Automatic annotation (TrEMBL):
Residues 58-84 are annotated as: Disordered. Keywords: DNA-binding. It comes from uncultured Mycobacteriales bacterium. Gene3D superfamilies: E3-binding domain (4.10.320.10), Lsr2, dimerization domain (3.30.60.230). This is Histone protein Lsr2.
Amino acid sequence: MAQRTVVQLTDDLDGKAIAEGKGETVRFGVDGQDYEIDLGEKNAQALRDIVGKYAAAGRRVGGGSRGGGRARTTPARGNRDYDPKAVRAWAESQGLEVSQRGRVPSDLVTKFQEANA
């Protein structure tokens, strides 16, 4: 006896079964959050019609593939006015605790800069 596994896709909007080749997973994003939804042909087109109206009036941002959806809030590494490795080494030489990874606390950077002014 043989076993056969059949995967049946269901339209996430109306709950109807999607015939093979008659639906798709549509990916979209709103407010920095990405979503995926399985839709039959009719509902996929309806979503594109609705979103298309807003997309046509909006501005494209980025290169087409969505990243993490999180904006950079810290300056780029080249814009720092200090060397994190130097600050960490100085802090350790002063007996101060500092993590070897992540952002260097601003109060520690200030102390380092004052000591090396």
